[in-house]
Design brief:
- The complex is a heterodimer of chains A (about 110) and B (about 240).
- Chain A has 5 helices and no strands.
- By secondary structure, chain A is an all-alpha fold.
- Chain A has 2 domains: about 40 residues, no CATH class; about 70 residues, no CATH class.
- In chain A, helix 4 runs antiparallel to helix 5.
- The radius of gyration of chain A is 20 Å and the shape is extended.
- Chain A starts with a helix and ends with a helix.
- The radius of gyration of chain B is 20 Å and the shape is globular.
- Chain B is built from 11 helices and no strands.
- The longest helix of chain B has about 40 residues.
- In chain B, helix 1 packs parallel to helix 3.
- The chains are: A mainly alpha (about 110), B mainly alpha (about 240).
- Chains A and B meet through helix 1, helix 2, helix 3, helix 4 and helix 5 of A and helix 1, helix 2, helix 3, helix 4 and helix 5 of B.
């Protein structure tokens, strides 16, 4: 295995970079059509939601809607704080406080 | 003279903004980087190999999967590289979303900025661009800082892999969804955004349950983006 790791890493690096530069290569000649730009406006909201919700509802890989799910409880606290205060630091500190307390002291 | 001073001031402000916005993100980055270093060493990679992987590939989820494949005896170049490509396909969507800004920049800068595109840098830059406009210096700053943190965290994990307790056991990785929440909540201001988020949440949960790997992110993002685009079109037809 030893000798084959570096070429694998180089291949992974090339494949990953291709996914990162791909969109620019496609659009660099003709530009982005206006209709597509209108659609792409929703990517951040869609994307952020797709990252957050499974992390909170399935932290161990299966659906966990119980009170034992510290990620879900901390997520609710963080979402509420973010909505009420719009304060990034407070949201994260409070959320982290809740999850560490739950994981280390309660559950 | 006055103009250069204002520019100077703006530059320092941008770097301060980079630090402020990356700080909460790095609280999520560091435990993942540490875990990556620990996993790599446990799988039999050397300190150099696992750190080099973080520096060259710089895509957490695919690195975890590749390390898992290597440690379970899969050493096929094609299989690992293809899996990496598929896991990272979501970058295509993020790249397209930032393309309106990036295509206006000089080519070399475009290629450089593309390398630093991750879930986290994308979240910061997309939000910043909509709130206050796109700024290439900010983009470069976020990319460089997060990249450095990722490599350093991997290196530390690889160096001290036997003495570090599992950083994910504490739930420190919650810092990432928490940071994403602070970026998402302000976006949910109108009906279209709420529905986009709802569709994405539903698809993501179903996808995470029934699809392998990180496909759920791509499926959910594409489906919800399509719904958002369709809703916009029908509402503009009504007017």
């Amino acid at each position: 295995m030893k000798s084959s790791v570096i070429p694998i890493i180089l291949g992974m690096a090339a494949a990953t970079y291709l996914t990162r530069i791909g969109a620019q290569l496609i659009f660099s000649h003709a530009g982005i059509p206006a209709w597509l730009e209108r659609w792409l406006k929703h990517v951040p909201t869609a994307f952020l939601t797709a990252l957050i919700v499974p992390a909170l509802l399935l932290p161990q890989g299966y659906l966990d809607l119980s009170l034992n799910n510290s990620y879900l409880l901390a997520g609710i606290v963080a979402a509420f704080t973010a909505y009420k205060t719009k304060n990034v630091l407070l949201t994260i500190v409070l959320g982290m406080g809740v999850i560490i307390t739950l994981n280390k002291l309660v559950l | 003279m006055e103009k250069t001073m204002t520019q100077q001031l703006q530059k320092t402000n941008v770097w301060r903004e980079v630090l402020q916005t990356c700080l909460p993100m790095s609280a999520g980055y560091i435990p993942f980087g540490l875990t990556c270093g620990i996993m790599g060493r446990t799988a039999g990679l050397s300190i150099f190999e696992v750190t080099f992987m973080s520096a060259a590939v710089y895509a957490g989820a695919s690195q975890f999967i590749a390390i898992g494949m290597l440690s379970s005896g899969v050493a096929s170049w094609g299989l690992i590289v293809m899996t990496t490509f598929l896991v990272n396909l979501r970058h295509l969507l993020m790249g397209a979303s930032l393309a309106p800004y990036h295509l206006k920049l000089p080519r070399p800068l475009q290629y450089l900025l593309a390398f630093g595109l991750t879930d986290e840098s994308y979240a910061l830059i997309a939000s910043r661009s909509e709130e206050r406009g796109y700024d290439a210096t900010y983009n470069l700053g976020v990319n460089s800082l997060l990249y450095l943190i990722w490599i350093l965290a991997t290196l530390l994990g690889a160096l001290f892999y036997q003495s570090i307790p599992d950083p994910l056991e504490w739930g420190i990785d919650f810092a990432l969804p928490a940071t994403f929440l602070t970026l998402l909540i302000p976006r949910l201001a109108d009906r279209t955004a709420l529905i986009v988020a709802l569709v994405s949440a539903l698809c993501a949960v179903l996808g995470a349950l029934y699809l392998p790997g990180s496909w759920y992110i791509i499926i959910a993002a594409v489906a919800a983006t399509l719904v958002g685009g369709l809703m916009e079109r029908s509402s503009s037809n009504e007017e």
